[in-house]
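User: My collaborator and I are trying to settle a disagreement about how two of our proteins should look. Neither of us wants to argue from intuition anymore, so we agreed to look at predicted structures for both before our next call. Could you fold the first one, then the second, and keep them clearly separated?

Assistant: That sounds like a sensible way to settle it. I'll keep them separate. The first protein:
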Amino acid sequence: MKATISSLLIVLLIFSCKDKPANDTEDTTIDISQINTNPNPLEGAWELVGYYNYVDNEVIDSFRTSEGYRQVKMYTDSKVMWSKYIPTDSSEWFGYGSYTVNGSELVEILEYGSEMMSKIIQEKKEFKHELIINGDSFSQIEIDEDGNRIYAENYKRIE
């Protein structure tokens, strides 16, 4: 019995290793778009498209940004910059700093910003969020002191 199984395995090995004919036209091209060559999936430009509100870590409400409102974030390998435009508000909103991603945690440390943002930065420079990346979209989720989700900003990739 052992000899029969061994013989069968040898025959299968021989046939699986046979050369393909020269006229074989099997497509061996690789779809480069399916290969993730960027080790940093957050790198690029993103636009805010909506929000989630949470209660007991469950989404209870979601809504899109209002007409004319724009918020864009740009991530390089180690830096982040964002700007916000609210048509009904004459205040300027932008910030610049560094960031790190550690697993599912996004930490942004702002160095400076617009006048309104500079006031916030004086009180708090480090902003920690839960991060969920899904291809060309991501959510940064605000977590309370007990580890519960409060709200999320949801972005789509624009470049």
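The second protein, kept apart from the first:
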Amino acid sequence: MYEKILLATDGSENAQRAADKAADFARELSSHVILVYIINTPPSQSRMVQANFDVHSLLEEDAKSDIKNTLDIFEQGGLAYTLKVAIGDPAAEIIGIAEKEKADLIVIGSRGLGTLKGVFLGSVSQKVTYHAKCPVLIVK
């Protein structure tokens, strides 16, 4: 039913609950999960210089630190996953990756660690739900 599940995560509590649900689906359905970690501001210039301007490796490093608990769920459970990282508007990036990867389902927390924590409650999940071309599961 859901061969490819996209899990949008930022390391927040709600994202962790979404990760648990995506892992349950992956276990039950033998699905492949695409873990998506988006930041909206690029790494500092000093970090980019230290990394020889390999921005992708910096993003992966940040993701592996920020979503360690999520990665542990999939690795310890022996669940198939791929990590995708990007810089930009989270909703637009999530939708773009879902379309490119032909995701059958998007799983996302109801709100995350946005810069204005709580002012725009669920704005990313609302945008994703409105614009996605596949079903979206919002986990509270």
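Some points you might bring to the call about the second protein. Helices lie at 13-29, 45-50, 55-66, 68-76, 90-101, 123-131. The chain has six helices and five strands.
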